[in-house]
Amino acid sequence: MVLVLCASACFATLSAQVRVLSDLGMHPFVTTFWRNFFGLFFMLPWLFKNGLGTLKTDRFWMFTLRSAISFVSMVAGFWSLSLMGFAEAISMSFTAPLFATMLAVLVLKESVRFRRWTATIVGFIGVLVVLQPASTGLGLGEALALFAAALSAVVSLVVKNLSKTESSNAIVTYMVLLLTPMSLALALPVWSWPPAADWWWFMAGMGLAGTLGHLCWVRALGMAEVSLVVSYDYVRLLFAALIGYWAFSEEPGLHTWIGAALIVGSGIYIARREAKLHQSAAAQAVAVSADPIGTPSTKP
After folding, report:
1. What is the pTM of this model?
2. Would residue 296 count as lying in a domain?
3. Does residue 121 contact residue 262 with C-beta atoms inside 8 Å?
4. Is residue 22 one of the residues assigned to a domain?
5. Residue 295 lies in a domain
6. How remote is the C-alpha of 137 from its chain's centroid?
7. What pLDDT, in 10s, does the model give residues 22-35?
8. Are 169 and 215 in contact (CB under 8 A)?
9. Tens digits of per-residue pLDDT, 130-161?
10. The domain containing residue 217 runs over which residues?
11. What is the DSSP string of 167-233?
12. Does any domain span residue 300?
């Protein structure tokens, strides 16, 4: 839970920096390149320290698949931030947990209990309360945000699979290593250099926030089920509301706080419920290991 909270704060900060650069006139394709370029820059110290041998793997095709899906998701998400209000764009991204929960059941065969389904749906209702889609309609920005969220859910499943055999640092390094040339090829036709020195701080900040966020996110996926990890991501809405108020003068309305209460409440319920279930499972495992045939133990 702590790792996902850290990742959520980093991703909300990343989205804010993307929005600032968009408002200053940078094309989303160029923004995507700088995010990956500086993301690679911040992973180079780890790579130099441990050597290229740490990237040796038999699953390069899986890394390539993850990077390709992440690339399309990132471009769509950054593009949507340039077309929509900050809080609205962030809210649309919270459809990812529903996609991930459904895919976790269908693809990973995870057992998602009725109460977690209910809590996840309640959290999604909270997102709809914040977004109020009936009053705004569905435009290009909303469609791009939904598309990015669906792809993000697929990425979560791929990362979960990779985390079984690969380190979190290698997973993140491969992502920025492959995405940097991909995003450069897309950015070149619309290329423009930053006209002000201040822009470099925002671009470097994107790389730092994105890298730290992905490190925390990948490690969290390696420690818990996908459907559980993505449930905590709803807290990112609170970070987004605070950043939107401070950076973009977007004051949250009553519907935002009502929706946030539903979102946070569902996340807290899931956390407490899963903690009790894990404690019960651990106690049963200890009992079975001490008495594997199920008869009263005679050991002192």
Report:
1. 0.76
2. no
3. no
4. yes
5. no
6. 25
7. 888 889 999 999 99
8. yes
9. 767 655 556 788 789 889 988 988 888 888 88
10. 2-191+198-288
11. -HHHHHHHHHHHHHHHHHHHHGGG----SSTTHHHHHHHHHHHHHHHHHHHHHHHHHS-HHHHHHHG
12. no
